[in-house]
Amino acid sequence: MQVRRADGVTFSFAGQVLPMSLRVCRALLWTQAAVILLGGVFVLVTAAVFGRSSSIQFHGGLLSGGGAALLGALYVSAGLVLAGLAAALARLTGWSLPAIVVVEVILACLDLVRSLDASVSTVIHLSLAVAVVLLLLTPDARHALARGPAP
Fold first, then answer.
1. Residue 102 is part of which domain span?
2. Within-domain flag for 8
3. Which residues share a beta bridge with 57?
4. Does residue 51 lie in a domain region?
5. CA distance 71 to 117
6. Which of 37, 28, 24, 20 is nearest to 124 (CA)?
7. For 67-107, how does the pLDDT look when each residue is reduced to its tens digit (9 = 90+)?
C-alpha cells in the first residue's frame, strides 16, 4: 500500500521495489544464512553436550571438543554475516555487492576444505553460492546497486 504524504512524496511500508534478480538473491541469501546458522548451532550443541565423545568430520579428519565448537562458532558467525548482508542488499547499499561475493567465495572454499566430496550438502551450498553471485552480476542488479537507495 502506498500513501502520498502532504508534501507530495509517495511512501510505502513495503520498502523499495527491488528488481526480481535482487529479490531472488536476497531470498537465497536468507535461505543460506538460515541453513548455515542452524548447522552451526547444531555443531555447537553437539560439541557442548557430547564433548570429546562425539566427533565431526572435517577435511579427512575428525574434530571434537574445542575444535568442533570453534567450527560451530565459525558457521554461526557466517550465518549472521549472511543475514546482515541480505538486509544490506535490500537497502541497496553499494558495498553489499563486493561484500557478498567475497563472503560467498570464502564460504565455498571453507565448504570444499571441510569435505572434498560430492555430498548433497556440498552440492547445495555451492549451487546457492554460484546462484547468488550470478544473480548479483545481472545488469539490472548492478544498475540498482549503482543507483543506490531511493531518497
1. 30-145
2. no
3. 62
4. yes
5. 19
6. 28
7. 778 888 988 999 999 999 999 988 888 898 899 999 999 88
